[in-house]
Amino acid sequence: MLGPVILAASRSDRLRRVVSAAPVTKPVVNRFIPGESVDQIVPIIVDATSKGLELTMDVVGEDITTPEQAAAARDAYLELIEHLKALDLGTRAEMSVKLSMFGQALEGGHELALSNVRPVVEAAAAIGTTVTLDAEDHTTLDSMFAIHEELRKDFPQTGCVIQAYLFRTEDDARRLAAAGSRVRVVKGAYKEPASVAYQEKPEIDKAYIRVLRILMEGDGYPMVGSHDPRIVEIAQELARRAGRKPGDFEFQMLYGIRTEEHVRLAREGHRMRVYTAYGTDWYGYFMRRLAEKPANLLFFLRSVLTK
Ligand code: FAD
Hints:
The protein is an alpha/beta fold. The protein has a single domain (34-281), classed as TIM Barrel (Alpha-Beta Barrel). 52% of the residues lie in helices and 14% in strands. The chain is built from 13 helices and eight strands. The chain has helices spanning 2-9, 13-21, 25-32, 38-50, 67-87, 109-126, 141-154, 169-176, 201-217, 229-241, 259-267, 283-292, 294-305; strands at residues 54-59, 93-97, 131-133, 159-163, 182-186, 221-225, 250-254, 271-278. The chain has an eight-stranded parallel barrel with strand order 1-2-3-4-5-6-7-8, surrounded by seven helices. β7 (250-254), α11 (259-267) and β8 (271-278) form a beta-alpha-beta unit. The two termini are 27 Å apart. The relative contact order is 0.16. Flavin-adenine dinucleotide binds next to β4, β7 and α12.
């Protein structure tokens, strides 16, 4: 019940200001967003990759309001890529981007987002890695898929995300499950109306498995974005049935969530990629993590109340 309330709060500017300014918030935020600058994040990248984990890096930020902010988002990724170049990690460290941070919601936003994301994708390719386009709320997806298709003409390894809770997603999965594609499937983290999305967890879980089966049976490269132990088990079974070996698909989980499972799956020989977010504009990302597990909110409130 709390999840939708927290998701609504994630869009409130007033709460954003209050929560972001409160000093007690920091330690709780750090569990999910382990740094604010690229210098703080480089040691985390080095540590994770030395343990056999792979990464997808997210510079947090979304819903920007000016083209200058969109250009700054692009530059933040370009700065990250400069640091990754020095680490020479190839696809062990890729990038995840939210097109809203690149200007997608502004006037002329589709073209603006494409023109801002293209140099990032180019720079990533130049150091031997790639970019995945995150999925945001359902109103943005046609534009995201069109940008994905456009980028893939020159950079076929560019990935995208599909959300199992949306009714449209099985069709998207069929379209995308083609040779050379990289597709992350997740349950979905936004507050969506009943006209476009399943609302109950059992329905969402069943939809996830249907979508995952399509990806596993297809010719692309599935990226299983979930912490759900049942999904992890079913993914391995679907992969086995589809004749896929570890390395023909990968698991992805968020930094700070089920951390021992990251290491366990990597030790079993799976590709395990940790989605690692950093930056100063962490409010929206942080609130979605609270919404996914109300116990996180209690932990957060307890740390506020005991200060
Ligand atoms: P759930 O059934 O929600 O959780 C299963 C178990 O995982 C829980 O019981 C709990 O033990 C643990 N868990 C899950 N979430 C949390 C949490 N926040 N804190 C602590 N424990 C938790 N969503 C999008 O809409 N667009 C995206 O582009 C996107 N990218 C993602 C990338 C990755 C790599 C991952 C892992 C998720 C991404 N998500 C994205 C979020 C996703 O949609 C879900 O909201 C999130 O993963 C929770 O769903 P779950 O599959 O882990 O299953």
